[in-house]
Fold this sequence. Notes:
Blueprint: E1 22-27, H1 35-45, E2 48-53, H2 57-66, E3 75-80, H3 84-89, E4 93-94, E5 118-130, H4 131-136, H5 145-148, E6 157-160, H6 166-179, H7 184-193, E7 197-199, H8 202-209, H9 214-218, E8 225-229, H10 232-238, E9 249-266, H11 272-282, H12 285-290, H13 292-295, E10 298-299, H14 308-313, H15 325-344
Parallel strand pairs: 1-2, 1-3, 6-7, 6-8
Antiparallel strand pairs: 3-9, 4-9, 5-8, 5-9, 5-10
Helix pairs in contact: 6-7, 7-15
Amino acid sequence: MVSGLAACGSSGGGQGSGDAKTVTLVSHDSWAASKGVIAAFEKQSGYKVNVLEDGDAGQAVNKAILTKDNPQGDVFFGVDNTLLSRALDNGLFQPYEAKGSEQIKAEYRADQGEHRVTPVDTGDICVNYDKKYFADHKLEPPKSFDDLVKPQYKNLLVTENASASSPGLGFLLGTAAKYGDDGWEGYWKKLKANGVKVVDGWEQAYNQEFSGSAGGKKAKGDRPLVVSYASSPPAEVLYAEPKPSSAPTGVAEGTCFRQVEYAGLLSNAKNTKGGKALLDFLVSERFQEDMPLNMFVYPVREGAQVPPEFEKFGPQAKDPETLDPAKIAENRDQWVKSWTSLVLK
Length: 345
């Protein structure tokens, strides 16, 4: 996912301002939508959209929970399957079944009994590699979790803090899915011994530390492996001037974990009517087809078209790691605690 266009409509903070004509969306920093698509919603609904971006997804969810009694807005977008149970257990959302949600593919639905969240997009958290680095060093890029602990990849990988960052947590859960309850800690011991670097969030990892991204090149990043998304390579192509014929980065397909992002109507939203209209819009065909080239994620709606560049440079992983949401809910906090003492101390 890539930070892009921020708010359309009014800006500024403040509790959704209680203005019945403004609907406030709280999100992580990677929210983006085309101006024309937001303008169409504003015209059709009569609501002005105000967007508050609140850091990495993990930080944004934690802040939303802390402020749930007096929320910053009406709708929260960006809680994913790795953090969903935390949001639901803390009463972050009130029930609402969005119009059009019957068009959402069955494998992405959650909380079907109460409809507190609406699936909006999906993507794969995967290790990305800098093609030039590996070509220059005549080294095959890694393909799997197993490869990352091999000596030839020592001091090459940067990942995000699993306790604060959504992709960091997704990568941790990918290793838990791959190696099981008895094996993931041993894997991380090997990864730590092999020089993995941990930073706070995706922006820092991808746009500062990673040598393969446009931002990382400017920042003189020196890590040719980064935990990011399967959809990051098309972003490198589409934002480049001139556009290259192939992506400068690749994906280690054996390191992917499937992520689904949800939106929900905040429990103490000031403008529930506007919030419901916005949730309806997020699953509409127009918004779903606008998402790929703005947030570099896949739509969850049946039949929504994906741009050809997206399919060419950032196809979904064929066999990503997955975990049952109940398993994540039961183990996540303990896994993160163990990971923190193992990797950060």
